[in-house]
């Protein structure tokens, strides 16, 4: 008899950002029971859990809105204790602004935060010491808006995707310098393979305002990190934003499906799709329908459950990756649009 995907998860918690909440909500993963939330300053976007210090980091990206349509950029990160569900500190990165992507090196105690550019500097990545919670420096990415950021398992190399710039920025984290540019036609989410040899990049950039026939083919570009070149493309039916790699080697991609709407930059939303690939074989395993505008994906440490945050419907779909079936849908409170965004899986204390 197949074991339930919820077995053994008592005490594990899923943290979920609501951009317009503005909140971070907590749910028990064994039962989907709502545990409470913490109010945060507007407008939270991404989450990252530090398992060493058992703290959540949350980017406070804009005063309202989203990339290209916001009420001004913020400069802060919120540090949250998931056990007591309270903010323990607000870390100000000023003059850096528009913090978004988060990547953690728990061994070295370094948090990497992508930030948007200004008139006097390009976009970049701020390096934060997770013990002192203070910035240590920044790495230029030579692009105006690095939005998503990931590092290799060794903590030596980082990759920033850039919405407008036609390349992925490759940075040396030890030397703090840009080392390469991988030619990609504008890009969104990304994930690095367990051996650091490949990077999976969603492209092209999700611009829903132009004619679809003028876009480059949608899919996931496969980048060989040794040569910094695209060596393959995993095709998708629609624009992909979030990309996530599970501990079991499943590559998850959130496809956004829209119908053009002259009154909305994002178009009129149709149900999205979660596409699942086997990363090492670069082959599709299947897909299933999810809610409106999948924007963030994470998974349980054992790779059995996926969590897909859908920002327009403000829901999180919980998916059994062995059966490719939705087992739950969480409603995330919001005051308006947008809604559910950043996700973090918080295992119970050892």
TrEMBL record:
This is YncE family protein. InterPro entries: Host-pathogen_enzymatic-act, N2O_reductase_N, WD40/YVTN_repeat-like_dom_sf. Gene3D superfamilies: YVTN repeat-like/Quinoprotein amine dehydrogenase. It comes from the Bacteria. The lineage of its organism: Bacteria, Bacillati, Actinomycetota, Actinomycetes, Kitasatosporales.
């Amino acid at each position: 008899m197949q074991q339930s995907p919820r077995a053994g998860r008592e005490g594990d918690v899923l943290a979920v950002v609501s951009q317009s909440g503005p909140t971070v909500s907590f749910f028990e993963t064994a039962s989907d029971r709502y545990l409470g939330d913490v109010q945060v300053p507007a407008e939270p976007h991404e989450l990252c859990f530090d398992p060493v210090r058992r703290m959540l980091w949350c980017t406070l990206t804009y005063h309202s809105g989203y990339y290209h349509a916001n009420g001004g950029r913020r400069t802060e990160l919120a540090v949250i204790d998931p056990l007591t569900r309270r903010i323990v500190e607000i870390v100000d990165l000023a003059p850096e602004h528009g913090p978004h992507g988060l990547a953690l090196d728990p061994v070295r105690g370094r948090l990497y935060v992508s930030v948007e550019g200004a008139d006097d500097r390009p976009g970049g990545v701020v390096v934060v010491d997770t013990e002192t919670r203070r910035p240590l420096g920044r790495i230029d990415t030579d692009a105006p808006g690095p939005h998503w950021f990931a590092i290799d398992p060794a903590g030596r190399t980082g990759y920033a995707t850039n919405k407008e710039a036609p390349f992925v920025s490759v940075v040396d984290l030890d030397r703090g310098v840009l080392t390469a540019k991988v030619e990609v036609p504008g890009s969104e989410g990304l994930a690095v393979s367990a051996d650091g040899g490949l990077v999976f990049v969603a492209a092209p950039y999700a611009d829903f305002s132009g004619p679809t026939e003028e876009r480059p083919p949608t899919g996931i570009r496969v980048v060989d990190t040794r040569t910094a070149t695209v060596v393959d493309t995993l095709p998708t039916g629609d624009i992909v934003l979030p990309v996530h790699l599970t501990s079991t080697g499943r590559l998850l991609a959130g496809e956004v499906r829209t119908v053009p709407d002259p009154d909305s930059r994002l178009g009129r939303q149709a149900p999205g799709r979660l596409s699942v690939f086997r990363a090492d074989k670069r082959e599709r395993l299947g897909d299933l329908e999810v809610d409106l505008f999948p924007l963030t994906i994470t998974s349980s440490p054992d790779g059995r459950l996926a969590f897909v945050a859908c920002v327009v419907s403000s829901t999180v779909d919980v998916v059994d990756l062995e059966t490719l079936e939705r087992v739950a849908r969480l409603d995330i409170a919001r005051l308006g649009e947008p809604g559910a965004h950043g996700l973090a899986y918080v295992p119970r204390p050892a």
